[in-house]
Amino acid sequence: MTIISADLAPKRLGLLRELVPNATALAALVNPNTPEGQGQSSDMRTAAHALALRLRILEAGDEKGIESAFATLAQDKADALLVGSDPIFDVHRDKLVAHVAAAALPAIYQFRDFAVAGGLMSYDPDIVDAHRQAGVYTGKILKGARPSDLPIQQPTKFQLVINLKTAKTLGLDVPPTLLARADEMIE
Q1: Shortest CA distance to 77 belongs to which of 15, 14, 23?
Q2: How many Cβ atoms are within 10 Å of 53's Cβ, its own excluded?
Q3: Do residues 117 and 163 make contact, with C-beta atoms less than 8 angstroms apart?
């Protein structure tokens, strides 16, 4: 089982653009010290180019890097922010959400927990469904299947979470098409 969500960066970029249609300059926060972060940077650049957006990649591999990235972001005047998938960002979730709130930027994150903590929006694999799939695999193994014979399962269900309170604070009107696709709305 895998719940790796790095390859969702282009989808997240598209959702952010849908929420902030007048955005022309976006920033993305990635960890350059991991292969996943390097891949995200490339995927985001490709997606931004396809959407005719200017994208500034900000790099942070630790807490000090996060502080530095937000200092740079304050100078760059981005219209919105995409926070990449990386465990370091999970560890510093509350600090990231606070920095984004202080900058009054629309942002999309990698996990629901960010939206619950006050972030604007998240798009991620459905963790409950991933656990269900793990249970199915466990059942197969208990019935005699060899784990090495079972294919790696990738997520098939994803969840879009929108924090309407944060959207209101930012003065954003969430389009009805986005609201209709949301799996959860935090009010």
Answers
A1: 23
A2: 19
A3: no
Q: From 2.60.40.350, 1.10.3720.10, 3.40.50.2300, 3.10.20.30, which CATH number describes the 6-125+158-186 domain?
A: 3.40.50.2300
pTM: 0.87
Q: Would you mind telling me the total number of residues written for the chain in this entry?
A: 187
What does the pLDDT look like over 62-112, one tens digit per residue? 999 999 999 998 888 899 999 988 889 999 999 999 999 999 999 999 899
- Contact (CB, 8 A) for 158 and 126: yes
Query: Which residue in 134, 89, 95 sits closest to 117, CA to CA?
Result: 95
Structure tokens belonging to residue 61: 């591999």
